[in-house]
Write a structure and sequence with these properties.
By secondary structure, the protein is α/β, with parallel strands linked by helices. The protein has twelve helices and 14 strands. It folds into two domains: 11-108, Rossmann fold (3-Layer(aba) Sandwich), CATH 3.40.50; 116-365, Vaccinia Virus protein VP39 (Rossmann fold, 3-Layer(aba) Sandwich). Helices cover 39% and strands 18% of the residues. The relative contact order is 0.09. It binds S-adenosylmethionine.
């Protein structure tokens, strides 16, 4: 939302009042206790009922527009105007000072506002490309994604709600280039933000297919965080709705290479060890390799759960594969950190590299932790 208003007293004109951004702005004004007047050039604008006061204005192309606006400003004591329409905004940007001295145009250019996130994504990628991570030196690297592909990834990831900080996204992108072949398994997907990223990386770098393992159940959201603040928020979520949101977020990006098990991690690992096929109504049937190139652990963050996730799944990671423990740095508890540190201490001789970036711990195995077993079909 473009928010720049600084109007004290007087009325704010929102025009055209029916545009989605106008309605968002109206809500913000109502919350802030501002006096708002909506206006439209339509004879019957169905959104007029949402405004406390309403007026008609001619189309901006009409010869009488400027005079009608001046009259409206005078009759309603208008001190500021909000318009998400780029043509009206441009006209007012050029003429408002002369038409109605003292009346402010409250928002910045609508086109600039729409494009800001695309420009930011490109700037992020440029910074990324100029500072590649010094990992896997001497190892084969998959050909890098183009600047455009990475900017698209960043931009679209931003549209999905969830927790995946920029540094972690950057590091995931880098380790994906250095990944061996195999499945990508995510423990804990919720609305699908990191899953989207992993699905995209899996396909872009031709690593393998993505399997998301999550019970999507409120009971499993309980983290027993020290202050109880996290658990209090989690209790307000609807896990069934979260799964639907996950499906909506991942479906457009699945090219028969994404599926999920609606199971807690331990049961998911049992299924994965015994069968290579996963079937859901949303994604159809997906066949996995049964060995993991990248394991992303972002499930329940208690020490017991994070340790169990590592214990159940790490043995299935290929030599050269990666294990990412999310929220290694976490303000609400140290479960993932204790589990991650213990894992590194226990398997020191089989770890090629380990580092922390953003909130996550990244571990690359030099050797498998478990002998490879044949899986049943
Ligand atoms: C922090 S959220 C995941 C966030 C997600 N990765 C993202 O990018 O926004 C934690 C998730 O772990 C899931 N979870 C909790 N217990 C689990 C378990 N035993 N096995 C697998 N997932 C679990 C929860 O249902 C929740 O979806």
């Amino acid at each position: 939302m473009q928010k720049t208003y600084n109007v004290t007293g007087g009325t704010i004109l929102v025009f055209p009042g029916g545009m989605p951004k106008s309605l968002e702005f109206l809500q913000q004004c109502v919350t802030d206790g501002k006096t708002v007047l909506g206006a439209s050039s339509l004879a019957h604008d169905p959104t007029r009922q949402q405004y406390p006061a309403w007026a008609h204005l001619p189309y901006v192309t009409d010869a009488g527009f400027d005079a009608a606006l001046q009259a409206l400003v005078a009759s309603h004591g208008i001190r500021g105007i909000y318009t998400p329409n780029p043509v009206i905004w441009d006209h007012l940007h050029r003429t408002l000072q002369a038409l109605a001295p003292g009346v402010a145009l409250l928002n910045t250019s609508p086109a600039d506002a729409e494009l800001a996130a695309y420009r930011k994504a490109q700037a992020q990628v440029d910074a990324w490309l100029h500072q590649p991570l010094a990992i896997g030196v001497g190892q084969p690297v998959r050909p890098g994604a183009s600047r455009l592909q990475l900017a698209a990834l960043f931009r679209h990831a931003e549209l999905i709600p969830g927790m995946c900080d920029r540094e972690k996204m950057f590091a995931l992108g880098e380790i994906a280039r250095h990944a061996v072949d195999g499945d990508i398994v995510e423990i804990g997907s919720w609305w699908g933000k990191s899953a989207f990223l992993l699905a995209w990386l899996a396909r872009c770098y031709g690593i393998g297919k993505l399997l998301c393992v999550d019970p999507w159940s409120n009971a499993h959201l309980v983290q027993h965080d020290a202050t109880g603040l996290v658990d209090q928020v989690s209790a307000q979520f609807d896990a069934n709705e979260a799964l639907t949101v996950f499906e909506m977020n991942l479906l457009p990006y699945s090219h028969d290479h994404v599926n999920y098990l609606r199971l807690p991690s331990e049961l998911g690992a049992q299924h994965y060890r015994q069968r290579r096929e996963v079937q859901t109504e949303a994604f159809g049937s997906t066949r996995y390799q049964g060995r993991i190139a990248l394991l992303h652990i972002d499930g329940n963050h208690t020490y017991a759960a994070a340790s169990a996730d590592l214990a159940c799944w790490s043995g299935l990671v290929n030599a050269g594969g990666w294990i990412v423990v999310d929220d290694y740095i976490w303000p609400y508890g140290n479960g993932p950190q204790r589990a991650g540190d213990e894992f590194i201490a226990r398997h020191q001789g089989r770890i090629a590299t380990a580092f922390v970036m953003g909130s996550a711990l990244f571990i690359q195995l030099s050797h498998c932790l478990e002998e490879q077993h044949a899986t049943q079909d």
